[in-house]
Specification:
- It is a single chain.
- The protein is α/β, with parallel strands linked by helices.
- It contains 8 helices and 5 strands.
- Strands 2-3-1-4-5 form a 5-stranded parallel β-sheet, sandwiched between helices.
- Helix 3 runs antiparallel to helix 4 and helix 4 runs antiparallel to helix 5.
- The longest helix is centred in the first third of the chain and has 25 residues.
- It is globular.
C-alpha cells in the first residue's frame, strides 16, 4: 500500500509521516531537504535557481516512486510528485520567477514521468491557514525559510486548494490541522488514525 501526505510548507507533513510510519510500521520516504543542494540558493535568489530546484525535486520524487513500486512493504511518502508539477512550478512561473522556456521544459519532463507513475492508494491533504503555517515554520527554525513571504505562502495555499478540489487519482482524506496538535496530543493523533483506518480498510 502507498499512502502519501500533501500540504503546504509548514503544514506538518514530515512530522505526521514519521508518526504514522511508527504507528503502522510503514516504510517512510521523506522529502530530501537536508541533502538538497539548491534550497539555500533558491530562497536567496528564486528567479535564478527555480528551475534547478524544481528539476531536483522532480528527479528525487520520481526515484522515490520507482523505489516504492519495487518494494514489498507499505509506504508512507512525505509530499507527492503532483505537488511539484501542479503547485510549486506553476506558481514560480506565474510569479515571473521561472522563464517560459524553463517551465515548458519542466512540464514536458513531468508529463513524460507521469506516464510511468502510479498514484498513491490514499492521499492525505493537510489543510492549514497561513497563521498556522507561519507558526510552524518559525518553530522549526530553518535558516533558509526565514525569507519566505506571506504572499508566497498564500499563493501556494490557493493553488493547493484548487488542486485538491479536482483531485480524482485515488482516495483522498482532508485533515484540517489548525486545531489539531498531533505531536503532543495522543488524542488528536488518534483522531487522524481513526480516519485513516476508515479509508484504508476499504482498500483491501
Amino acid at each position: 500500500m502507498h499512502v502519501a501526505i500533501a500540504g503546504n510548507i509548514g503544514a506538518g507533513k514530515t512530522t505526521l509521516t514519521r508518526l504514522l510510519a511508527k504507528h503502522y510500521n510503514w516504510n517512510a520516504h521523506y522529502e530530501s531537504v537536508e541533502e538538497n543542494p539548491y534550497l539555500d540558493d533558491f530562497y536567496g535568489e528564486m528567479e535564478r535557481w527555480s528551475f534547478n530546484l524544481q528539476v531536483y525535486f522532480l528527479n528525487s520524487r520520481f526515484r522515490q516512486i520507482l523505489d516504492i513500486r519495487e518494494g514489498k512493504k507499505s509506504i508512507i511518502q512525505d509530499r507527492t510528485i503532483y505537488e511539484d508539477a501542479n503547485i510549486f512550478a506553476p506558481n514560480l512561473h506565474a510569479m515571473g520567477l521561472m522563464a517560459n522556456r524553463d517551465f515548458s521544459n519542466y512540464s514536458s519532463l513531468f508529463e513524460l514521468m507521469e506516464r510511468l507513475v502510479e498514484p498513491p492508494d490514499l492521499l492525505i491533504y493537510l489543510r492549514a491557514s497561513i497563521s498556522t503555517l507561519v507558526d510552524q515554520i518559525h518553530k522549526r527554525g530553518r535558516d533558509y525559510e526565514n525569507s519566505i513571504s506571506i504572499d508566497y505562502l498564500s499563493r501556494l495555499n490557493e493553488r493547493y486548494e484548487a488542486w485538491i478540489s479536482t483531485y480524482t487519482k485515488g482516495k483522498l482524506l482532508i485533515v484540517n490541522v489548525d486545531n489539531l496538535d498531533f505531536v503532543d496530543s495522543p488524542e488528536d493523533l488518534g483522531k487522524i488514525v481513526d480516519r485513516i483506518d476508515a479509508q484504508i480498510n476499504g482498500l483491501f
